Amino acid sequence: MKDQNMQNAETLSLDDVEALARDTLARAGASEQAATSVARSTRAAERDGMRSHGLLYVPIYAEHLRCGKVEGEAKPKVEQTRAAALRVDAGSGFAHPAIDDGLPALLEAASNTGLAAMTIHNSYNCGILGYHSERIAAAGMLGLCFTNAPASIAPTGGRKPVIGTNPFSLAVPDGKGGAKFVIDQSASAIAKSEIMLRAREGHMLEEGWAFDADGQPTTDPARALEGTMAPSGGQKGFGAGLMVEIFAAALSGATLGKDATPFSGPIGGPPRTGQCFFAIDPQAFSGAGFADRLEALCEALTEQDGTRLPGSRKFAHREKAERDGVAVPAALLERIINS
Questions:
Q1: Which residues contact 218 (CB under 8 A, 6 or more apart)?
Q2: Ordered DSSP codes for 78-102
Q3: Residue 268: left (phi > 0), alpha (psi -120 to 50), or beta?
Q4: Tens digit of each residue's pLDDT (9 = 90 or more) over 246-256
Q5: Catalytic-role residue among 31, 37, 41, 52
Q6: Which of 56, 63, 130, 232 has the fewest CB within 10 Å, making it most exposed?
Q7: pTM of the prediction?
Q8: Which of 77, 61, 4 has the alpha carbon at shortest distance from 28?
Q9: Catalytic: 169?
Q10: Is 53 annotated in the active site?
Q11: One of 18, 71, 134, 194 is an active-site residue; which one?
Q12: CA distances (Å), 252 to each of 75, 87, 119, 120, 145, in order?
């Protein structure tokens, strides 16, 4: 069925993807700043082959702008509380413009002190977390980022969700204005947006991805959306998600995942979740030796047949998408146009 969906598709350039997302969000009530910022993230998701975080989310964003789950005209407020500490109030708006407003000060603080942190509260979905950590790496810094989400994972042995899929990302600078590699993974076995994508396209899930409302394993995406996500690696995955919850929600002053309204559907007000970003200057800690050690580590990772650096698959997809554009299912295009 997936092949049939993609056969009924239109090829869009990345410029077209960005313009479509920006115009749709603006029409739904997003400010120019918010629409532009989210559209850039949407472009990056489609460029990197992350369909579940790309145009698929635009109709959801538009619905949430109209029902008040996200404040389209929110103006982020950036406060520098210490020499290396920043706090941003997203005003119940998208996380993207809040990140955009705080990032320059974060990078400047990290350059001055060696390490700086920025928390964001009262925010909404930030899209692909690796997109933001890679921006820190492009400035020559290690980018370590956390974001919490509405609860969808139950603790080991339980059935009631307490934490969200809670991704974390590490982007490592290559010293050339880019990222050597990017780790971007959630506490769940698979991103919840992938479950949503499969539910919409009529595909079953892989075993071990989710549980139904009775706590039983399921491969039915509809039943999974009524139940809970499986943590990646069992209790270790739940522990990783709990760590993210501490940084992205407890430390930032954001709403805990257990109390946040869902990112899907119109029910409830703004989720007011949060993020936490670290920017670390390698030169402040390891001097000139960082690049050599990084190269030795990467060689050890890739010298074996069949291995690759984290994020290399999306980098390959990126080159093709920038050249040839991306295929967008006709049904999705229609939903976006009608949003």
A1: 205, 210, 211, 212, 224, 227
A2: EEEEETTEEEEEEEEE-HHHHHHHH
A3: left
A4: 999 999 999 99
A5: 52
A6: 63
A7: 0.92
A8: 61
A9: no
A10: yes
A11: 194
A12: 18, 8, 5, 6, 12
